[in-house]
User: Fold this.
Amino acid sequence: MQHRKFGMGQAPARVEDARFITGQGNFATDARAKGQAVGFVLRATHASAEFTLSQLERARALPGVLAVYTHADVAHLGALPCQAPIKNSDGTFPPMPLYPVLPERRVRHIGEALAFIVAETLEQAKDAAEAIDVRYKSLPAVASIAAARASGAPLVHDEAPGNVAVDHILGDKARTDAVFETAARVVSLEVENPRIIANYLEPRSILAVPEADGKLTLTLGSQGVHSIRNTLAKFIFRRDPASIRVITPDVGGGFGTKTFMYREYPMAVFAAEALGRPVFWASERMEHFVACAHGRDNLTKLEMALDEKGRFLALRIGLDANLGAYLSQYGPYIPWIGSTMMTGVYDIPAAYTRVRGIYSNNVPFDAYRGAGRPEASYAIERFVDFIADEIGMDRLKLRKLNFIKPRKMPYKTPGGRTYDTGDFAGHMARACEIADWKGFEKRAKVAKKAGKLRGIGLAVYIEACGGGSPEPAYVDLHKDGTASVRIGTQSNGQGHATAYAQLVAEHLDIPVEKIAVLQGDTNFTPTGGGTGGSRSIPVGGAGVDAAARQLAENIKGIAAEVLEASPADLEIANGRVSIIGTDRSVSFAEVAADPRAEGKLSTTASFRPPEPTYPNGTHVAEVEIDRDTGEARVVNYVIVDDVGATLNPTLLFGQIVGGAVQGLSQAMIERFAIDERGQIITASFLDYAMPRADDVPSFTFETANIPCATNPLGIKGAGEAGTIGAAPAVMNAMVDALRRAKGLRHIDMPVWPEKIWQALATAS
Assistant:
């Protein structure tokens, strides 16, 4: 079918933006219910301690206080589940310490919940929290990977000797080690991927409303209502999921972190049912720093075996991931999925990764935009630059020598992935052409005369996304000729209302404004996988496309009877069905009103991915550093991406650039600091920096798409791609500038001005 005005590949304006820019958005933090009470969490001020609570009755007796709940009140509830455990190398699952709704007598990270207080007002709840006497017996803490894995380190959990949560090997160790025995050369490097706090715009909240029929209605910001409902029902409250309705309205950002179950949700549910009235809880901004899952936090040691010409023969990796004090919902899975992508875009015959999840006295760790793949991309791309410097080979030449060639596709990696398509040398060459890589030396000389250091770097990335379970989509034609989509994914700002409408418009040829997209309510759809792993459009979109195609066929079938014509002689255009070459037609509204349409104007379809999609691309960054102050800025940034196929160029650009800003921010701006006692030093925006407009360069972006062979739309997914390529490109540019000036060969993220200045001052 010819692409429609509003269909695939077109760039209609986002239909949701009018609401947002006029203040008509409806967010979970706006939710209110008649007679609602307010919840507040009393949090630990120690990261590792035994504790006792007293003066509880005094707190309960204060004006407006309705309840003070502690471990004893919720001990019967199930623990927060880890739903993606990883086996040890011997095939056994490691012990999984409980992650209780409220701890009984031991806290393991700063800000851990101690009690849940419910009052008529937030101020009254806070007064009650201050009235509770909390006594601590401080215990030794291990705040970092190095401290947690040190000999004789204090244990976060007695069930986890050495603070090891999981110890898993992926790949062929024996074969890889054998290659290293005979390699002409071995190069090694250790890199750190620092901890990140996912600061989305809208803090988390929940409104729990007990209904007269014994059911519950919950309103909260999430990345999938079905997952929240099922986790609460099956794991924590052990009840029929049908007894809980979860609603997610507009969401002010998620980045993976709003996917998970958090303690405040079951606490609010328990309180609402116990009190028989609605209970509302909302995170305060500083509270967010200790109450939401953190991301990244890996130490990775890489070793590469090479032949005399610089070809990669084997790669072995030791990856330690700081999982924090408890196993969050997908915590162990994140470093594991990263380990499957550790060879990147390179043809490396043998490889293995030893993945160790480490407990520490930190806030639990989970998926943050990219979820393991940015860590993998950063490690291998920083390492390839380091290897080039070590063996004296041009960075581009080394990459081109070792790229997986298009003729080798589909290509099975040592990590078990099967790449279907990709021309890595092609988009690297194009990105370097746009960035004027060859002209860099002239620009560096000009900068040097002005007292500046210039560096240029790139990263050629690949990631795995858009896989997993099928995502059912329901497409309906209504009696007024409009259409709607019901689906279990969840927009967090990506533009789903526009994207899904475009896929329907491709087949029905009506404006996207006439197609409603309904998400975020377990009453809309029986199941849903939510949004994460860049799966909404590759997986959910494929379902929408198939359902819309079937609906178009049904409409033509009904119209054929109305017009007394063969369906083969009909065409759909501008919301009407016409006999080709004539002026005889019927509107969608007339089709919907026809009695023969009964049961035919609601269609459903889903797509089960046989394999994840593998978006890939090249980022080129150019940086300039003030030699006297260490202040750095990105002065040029080019991205050439292969995302398979483009649904909406404007939405795609927003996703890619937004992700790239987050990667750039991790490399240069966001600094997480924690002391040896587990106290977070950067626990507010006074200390934890976020990117501002003047930190961000203008981006040049284009695509070099090769349609995905395993997706019916050809789409490879793009929601996380920008984040995955950005940090290594920026850091390679930083190191290039510092190497040229002082011979420095590696520096870890993030690189803030003082750190750069010290590196320049101390490097020999």
Remarks:
- The two ends are 64 Å apart (CA to CA).
- The chain has a mean pLDDT of 97.
- Residues 121 and 268 are 15 Å apart (CA to CA).
